[in-house]
Amino acid sequence: MFKLANKMRIIFFLANFSLGGAAESIVKLSEFLSKYGFSVLLISINKNQYKKRLLNAGCEIKEIKVSRVLYSFIELRKIIKLETNKKFVKIIFFSSIHYANILSIFARMGNKKLKLILTERSSFAELKISHSLFRNIKNFIVYTLSKFFYKYSDHIITNSNYEKIYIKKNFKIKNISCIHPPSIKKVFKIRKKIKRNKITNIIFVGRISKEKGLDLIVKALSILKNTANFDFNLKIYGNGIEKDKIVYMAKKYKINKKIFFLGFEKNHDKIFKNADLFINSSYFEGLPNALVQALNYNVFSICSDAPGGNLEVIKYGKLGLTFEKGNYFDLASKINLYLKNTYKIHSLKYKTNHLKKYTEMISYNKYIEVIKSI
After folding, report:
1. Is residue 189 included in any domain, yes or no?
2. Taking the alpha carbons of 161, 165, 170, 173 in that order, is the dihedral positive or negative?
3. Is residue 188 one of the residues assigned to a domain?
4. Alpha helices in 171-240 (DSSP H)
5. What is the overall mean pLDDT for the chain?
6. pLDDT of residue 340
7. Do 178 and 313 share a structural domain?
8. Is 211 found in the same domain as 174?
9. Which residues does 60 contact at the CB level (< 8 Å), separation at least 6?
10. Looking at the whole model, is its pTM more than 0.85?
11. pLDDT of 101 above 60
12. Residue 258, Cβ density class (10 Å: 0-12 exposed, 13-18 middle, ≥19 buried)
């Protein structure tokens, strides 16, 4: 695929390598690059949850043992210096997510051999959401530093066109491109819509954290729980620090017997095959892999109009329904529209053509193009 692959070093730095969309995308890309001869190193702060899988793929792993990302600066700079002393014709350092990107920019300073590519796998809208004065100050600093220092990278990659346009406009940056994550291996063949189950199977896939807005789904379902001819199960695939809060809320609204916490699940068939309705309730997103996967399984989808890739994936309401972020009354209204079948979406063929841009090989080839051009 690439003649000089075995003479190139590709380094990925993701501070939090826990199970989830951002890490999964990097792991898939690393496996692909390693398979085609690239020398791949992955750096994380503390434990890499994908370590065994990556080692089996021929990748190298470096876990920096520190309590905070900021404290990894000296070690990260040492790693960069060691790597640039190795005999590779090209060394490309991919850093992910704004706060780690700032650290990478400073750690790379004075090193002309290493090429730095910043990837935004979330949205800068994240920095406008906080629940404390300390977090407000921290987010302001990260945003200000990003706005000033991102121009010192060699290239920037975003997950969504939304974020590409935002950074290009607000940071005055030209060397930027959008590469969607490798959400699906292939687009499934068009299937006719299967009749909804007697008990509507609703699914949520993702971290159980504040920004994912799972509480909004619980509140919306509590409004609809007495709707005629509507019985439901809510299956939650994921883990997170907000789980106890959601358990408490479900009991409070007396729908706890209808909610099931199933943890992280690798088998997509188990998640999507028998699902009737997928809901993404995030306050911000990068590019939601689970939403792409739900559409690929022909599961009807409702998502928030959050900053990031939600609206892009669902084609601004052409492939499902959208609701105002943070508004569980609007979400309840959209679930009701789904139940009544009073909505209009484009054909399955239209959906199939749209989903092709989120396939693995499309994503990988675009990364190869960037690697060649740097």
Report:
1. no
2. positive
3. no
4. 214-224
5. 92
6. 87
7. no
8. no
9. 39, 40, 41, 42
10. yes
11. yes
12. middle
Q: Which residues have CB under 8 Å from 78's CB, separation 6+? A: none
The Cα 263–Cα 86 span in angstroms is: 42
- Give how many domains the chain has, as a whole number: 2
Q: What is the pLDDT of residue 210?
A: 92
Same domain, 246 and 135: no
Structure-block tokens of residue 42: 């992955």
Angle, alpha carbons 2-159-58 (nearest 5°): 40
Cα–chain-centroid distance for residue 228? 36
117-134 residue pLDDT tens: 999 988 898 888 777 888
Residue 191, in any domain of the structure: no
Residue 82 within any structural domain of the chain: yes
Question: Which CATH number is 239's domain given?
Answer: 3.40.50.2000
Residues 153, 262: one domain? no
Q: Closest Cα partner for 103 from 136, 65, 70?
A: 70
Do both 165 and 213 map to the same domain? no
- Whether residues 149 and 12 fall in one domain: yes
Sheet holding 60-64, edge to edge: 60-64, 39-45, 8-13, 90-96, 114-120, 155-158, 176-178
Cβ atoms < 10 Å from Cβ of 115: 17
What are 131's two structure tokens?
């629940």
Amino acid of residue 9: R
Residues 316 and 176 in one domain: no
